[in-house]
Design a protein that fits this description.
Layout: E1 15-24, E2 27-37, E3 41-46, H1 53-60, E4 68-73, E5 76-78, H2 83-88, E6 91-94, H3 106-111, E7 117-118, E8 121-122, H4 124-138, H5 153-166, E9 171-175, H6 183-198, E10 202-206, H7 210-216, E11 219-224, E12 227-233, H8 239-247, E13 265-273, E14 280-285, E15 288-293, H9 300-308, E16 315-320, E17 323-324, H10 330-335, E18 338-341, H11 345-349, H12 356-361, H13 365-370, H14 377-391, H15 407-420, E19 425-429, H16 437-452, E20 456-461, H17 464-470, E21 473-478, E22 481-482, E23 486-487, H18 493-501
Parallel strand pairs: 3-10, 3-11, 6-9, 9-10, 15-20, 15-21, 18-19, 19-20
Antiparallel strand pairs: 1-2, 1-4, 4-5, 7-8, 11-12, 13-14, 13-16, 16-17, 21-22, 21-23
Helix pairs in contact: 15-16
């Protein structure tokens, strides 16, 4: 990364947040926060989930109002009462979860809400011309006439960026922009960010991935417990410094303890076939983590759903703890000892409006044992309180809604709930996606402890370090097919990356044998 000046003599910052404070009932989200962002700068904002990053960005984007402090744009005080005010002031937000209408074209998505009219009719010609100019200026080429449902993830993100630029944004907030991208798409995004910087725009880059922060940013602000604990040029930082500021300790690594050969087979698939999976065969033993690596969209989600019994299969078999579960529904598979950390905690794991103890009741084997005939609220609250304390979940009580927790704390709650039922087999789909390094360390430790305690873990992840660090053996999923299992110690990140993209192949594994 080439150095970039953070300011010019006599030119004010594009954004300056001074002494921002924000409180919610029982929680101080921001306390005396300061942030200065200059034109032509990629400014990273990092911190644990719950540290206050999102609240600060919502204040800048007009979604929340501060209790104290002031906002200056181009050196002038500004009052941003809504996102519409922020957009009018030149601030745009590229959300982690894309806000696109899949049945509309790229052009229709970009202009939606900002349509130009001529004689009372939509002026498509003018809109198309402006979109083409913006695309060419920033090197963001996307076919304006294709429907969004036909686009890949990286191209959809380009559409989100174009939506913001079309509205004249000079400050772009990116919320975890690489969370859903494969490596090639990440590189393309970073090239786009560099182009925005060269054009004098300001980019606020929120991420948990410190290697990406150090690679792409010019300046870093670290937030902990609602306030800034570090503000420095990226050239003056390294991952150890930043991680110490974020969590008050060293950066955790997913390295497993002594590798094991595994015990009795707890999960066995033979020739399992779905609409997106071709004859998947694998075995996971007790006391083992089997990693499934692969670029997202190659059948991993469908494989997990088929094992859980929520997706139909056309061939093959599923055995859980020695029992044929192929024709069993999800409830009966769970009774055999199957648990799951799903890939999307909001859609598949949590009832966000419900309280923490109500969410723990969902699938808690321990609570079922304590309360057979009725809901024992006291027992549920007690178990939830114990879980909150043991995992360091930042929550004032078991009675707060799950929606009030940060992403990392929500994920710790889900992992703790699934392990609390003392399962025999755990499906862990992207267990640390979108969580900070502190929550990551807790979840990795829980998985290692569970594996050492005899649990069979099927780990699905697109994070090469996570797969190699935690797994005893690894299989790669490419275009719906599983490769042969390889001991994790025999793989490097480079070789695993080649296997994931198909530039190197391992034979499919029709007959797996666990030692």
């Amino acid at each position: 990364m080439s150095p970039h000046a953070t300011s010019e003599p006599g030119r004010p910052p594009l954004v300056e947040l001074r002494h921002i404070s924000k409180r919610y009932p029982g929680v101080v989200a921001n306390r005396d926060m300061n942030l200065v962002v200059h034109p032509g700068q990629i400014h990273a904002v990092v911190g644990e989930n719950g540290a206050g990053k999102s609240t600060l960005m919502r204040i800048l984007y007009g979604e929340e109002q501060p209790d104290g402090g002031e906002i200056l744009l181009n050196g002038e005080p500004a009052r941003l009462r809504s996102p519409a005010d922020a957009i009018a002031a030149g601030i745009g937000m590229v959300h982690q979860h894309f806000m696109l209408a899949e049945n509309l074209t790229v052009l229709e998505n970009v202009i939606l809400g900002a349509e130009t009219s001529r004689w009372g009719l939509l002026d498509r010609r003018s809109s198309r011309r402006v979109l083409r100019e913006v695309s060419e200026r920033y090197g963001l080429d996307v076919d304006p006439d294709v429907t969004v449902e036909r686009l890949g993830v990286g191209q959809r993100q380009r559409v989100e960026i174009l939506k913001v630029l079309y509205r004249g944004a000079r400050v772009l907030i990116f919320d975890e922009p690489t969370a859903v991208l494969v490596p090639d798409e990440v590189r393309a995004l970073f090239e786009s960010l560099a182009g925005l910087r060269e054009r004098g725009l300001a980019v606020i880059f929120i991420s948990h991935k410190l290697d990406e922060v150090l690679a792409v940013s010019d300046h870093i602000t670290v937030i902990r417990a609602g306030t800034s604990v570090g503000d420095f040029a990226t050239s003056e930082a390294d991952s150890r410094l930043v991680s110490r500021l974020i969590i008050g300790g060293e950066l955790p690594a997913p390295a497993t303890r002594d590798r094991t050969g595994g015990g009795q087979v707890a999960l066995r698939l033979r020739g399992l076939r779905t609409d997106a999976v071709t004859e998947a065969t694998l075995e996971v033993a007790r006391g083992e983590i089997l990693g499934i690596a692969g670029v997202e969209g190659n059948g991993q989600s469908e494989l997990i759903e088929a094992i859980m019994g929520i997706r139909g299969t056309s061939a093959g078999s599923v055995h859980i703890t020695g029992r044929d579960a192929t024709r069993l529904d999800t409830r009966h598979r769970r009774r055999l000892g199957l648990a799951c950390i799903p890939e999307d905690r909001h859609r598949q794991a949590l009832a966000l409006p419900a309280t923490l103890w109500e969410n723990i009741m969902l699938g808690s084997g321990e609570l079922r044992r304590r309360s057979r005939w009725r809901v024992d609220r006291k027992a549920a609250r007690d178990v939830t309180g114990e879980l909150i304390a043991r995992l360091g979940v930042k929550a004032p009580s078991p009675d707060v809604p799950a929606a009030a927790l940060s992403g990392g704390n929500q994920q710790k709650l889900v992992v703790g709930r699934e392990l609390g039922g003392r399962p025999a087999v755990l499906l862990a789909a992207h267990p640390t996606r979108g969580v900070d390094v502190g929550a990551q360390a807790v979840i990795w430790e829980l998985l290692r402890d569970a594996r050492d305690g005899g649990l069979a873990v099927l780990l699905v992840s697109a994070d090469l370090d996570e797969v190699l660090g935690l797994s005893d053996r690894v299989q790669v999923m490419l275009r719906g097919r599983l490769s042969a299992a390889v001991p994790a110690g025999e793989l490097t990140p480079q070789r695993l990356g080649r296997l994931m993209t198909g530039t190197e192949t391992e034979p499919a594994d029709p007959a797996v044998e666990v030692r």
